[in-house]
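Internal QA ticket QA-208
Title: Verify multi-chain structure generation after dependency bump
Assignee: T.L.

Test input:
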Amino acid sequence: MKPQSGNTYFQNDNFQSVSNSLSNSASQGLTTPEVEASQIRTVFVTGFPADVTPKEFHNLVRFFTGYEASQLHNKTGVYLQAFALFNNHASAVQACNILNQLPYDAENTLTAKIAHKNLYLKDAPTILRADTTGKVSLNIAWVSPSSPSSSYPVSQAPSASNLPGYLQSDAPVRSPVSGFAPVLNKYDNLPCNTLFIGNLGDSVDEAELRLVFGSLFGFKQLKLICNPRQVGGSQVSCFVEFSSVTAAAAVHASMQGAIFNSSDRGPIRIQYSKNPFGKRSAHPGVAQGIAQGVSAPQLLSHGLMLGDGAPMFLPPGVVPNGGGPPGHHINPGALPFGPGVLGEVSWSNAVSPFPLS
DNA sequence: AGCACA
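Actual output:
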């Protein structure tokens, strides 16, 4: 593909000032950035080759559930930045989880994060929008690459050509995550490569969990645990193993507080497992837990600041959600976000049907 | 608020 000559689709007037954005937030009763987090429905993607085009990115994300519009920036001297807007936070998180670490081609791997601000839709030729003709009715963003019959299959590495849900089926698969809600995570364990998933609905099954976790970066296996003796709480829990602590940490952050279709008792609670998959505790009976107050500032999974924002226990080099890659911090004032799209997400703290549990 | 498997 021929590299773009010049910066034909970068325009300074696409940018909205941060002060505008903040004052708009305040007018909606949102006083901290954290409160807005669950309303962010934009994914920020980097890692493209220099010759990527806006239409190329649009075609990469156009079949994701909830996709609304995208914009690619190619400012001289700045690495390529793409933004994709979805119609709610959950869809943005799912797209983010698919796009992150996705090999784009032989030399380039994408990095995807939830953006700091939503893409501001304006009548600009640089913004490509979802098809509205009705001719494209596919609305698939989540098809597990795993075989449902095998017990613990290792997910295949996704690539742009065999993207999960990408023109694979004429029977759309319903998105397994319907939203996010705040969740307390008072006690967590030391980060490891295995996650403990709590507060699952009693009707959850392995197939649903595979839809959610099976295609995430680094997924290795999961195990569903049923404890009928458990009274008054969730009788079902799940262990999910990833290929690295880093991969587990990313899912710990991005899927915290997710609400599944089977969720009838509130959002899931994700903790690091007391013991990694397949490894026995060195000293049984010795407390390993670490009080964490809450799971994190939780910029991604919900909009309430719970606790004091105690430090996350991420391994070196892992950036909490919302951050940029090391050495590539995003200047919010230089991003094309405006306030026009806040408050339109399907879920907000004010209408969460679940008590904080 | 529930941590199995080896």
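Spot checks passed. Residues 1-31, 139-172, 284-289, 291-351 of chain A have pLDDT under 50 and may be disordered.
Status: verified.
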